[in-house]
Amino acid sequence: MNRRSQPTARRVLVSALVPVLVFAVALAMAGCGDDASGAETPAATPATGTTTAATEGAPESDQETAPQVDPLLTAPPFDVRRIRTEPDPDDTEERPCDVAFAEDARDVTDPEASFYPAGTVSHRIVRCAAPSGGGWLELAFADAAASEGVSVGTRLAFRLTSVTRGRQGYPVVSFLRVVGDAPDASGSEEAQNSPENPEGQQAPQVAPGFDFGRLRNEAALARRPQRCAVDFVSELVLLDETARRRAGYPAGTQNRLSAKCLHSDGDSWIDLIFSSDDAARALTVAPGAEITVEIESVDRGFAGRPMVRLAEEP
């Protein structure tokens, strides 16, 4: 090959390589769109707000929070008589009351102020229902308007203030809030106007028991246990040491209640006493119950009634 033909050959070679180089560069540029790690690049979120594959399954920070349920709403009904059976009742615990009866609210007067927590402006007596029995409380309100939310069929939350200092000797409690509807909103079983109204309690049918009026004339009957067919039960009373001694109750007596017992010729009354060890058994004494009692005295009980205590459990 002569010298003139050499440039011509180079031009032909370069012309042949140009398409090859262009094709290689195009392939390299196409690969630049892939992530070096091989992971899929998240797509941009569309303006319409549609969730993309990269955000699916992620927690939504703006999702509405579920409403908090008051723990007392699902708590079992509380027998408020328990307060008087506990040697040292907890005054910090929040407890529920299923309202079966409520008196009208009353403003606190100056002479009454010492019986209620500081800041109390009104008070209201309510009866609280429970399957084991009902009891009475005196609610103290720091806000007079709050008392308007208390009605039969509601469940409220309270905290104990005093066991015996209420207007009628009922436990005084601080009203905290209305929790919601009581599980059994009817309140029919406990809807009665007075704790000392025998006609207010509808006792289930029970077979007649012993006539305790016979004890005055038949002293030998006091030496053995007798059966009471309970028709009515009064409020459970907590006795301090002074009241115990004044009434002549045996040492160690903590609580008492009056019970009306049915017999074949009518009814008779007994004064049932409890020590601190068996005070919880007082909650089992209710209309319709059949209890066996041992006679402590024929006539030394409340209002001259027979003083008795529950017989030992077998």
Keywords:
314 residues, OB fold (Dihydrolipoamide Acetyltransferase, E2P), 2 domains, five-stranded mixed β-barrel, 2 helices
Structure description:
With 314 residues, this protein is mainly β. The protein has 2 domains: 71-181, OB fold (Dihydrolipoamide Acetyltransferase, E2P) (Beta Barrel); 198-310, OB fold (Dihydrolipoamide Acetyltransferase, E2P) (Beta Barrel). Helix content is 11%, strand content 28%. It is built from 2 helices and 12 strands. The radius of gyration is 41 Å and the shape is elongated. The N and C termini lie far apart (132 Å).
What does this entry show, briefly?
The protein is mostly beta strands. Helix content is 11%, strand content 28%. It has two domains: 71-181, OB fold (Dihydrolipoamide Acetyltransferase, E2P); 198-310, Beta Barrel (OB fold (Dihydrolipoamide Acetyltransferase, E2P)), CATH 2.40.50.
Instruction: Give the C-alpha Rg.
Output: 41 Å
Give the class-level CATH name of the largest domain: Mainly Beta
Number of spatially distinct domains? 2
**Biggest β-sheet: strands ordered side by side in the sheet:** 1-3-4-6-5
Topology order in helix (H) and strand (E) letters = HEEEEEEEEHEEEE
Let me know the number of strands: 12
Strand-residue fraction?
25-35%
Helix/strand-derived category reads: mainly beta
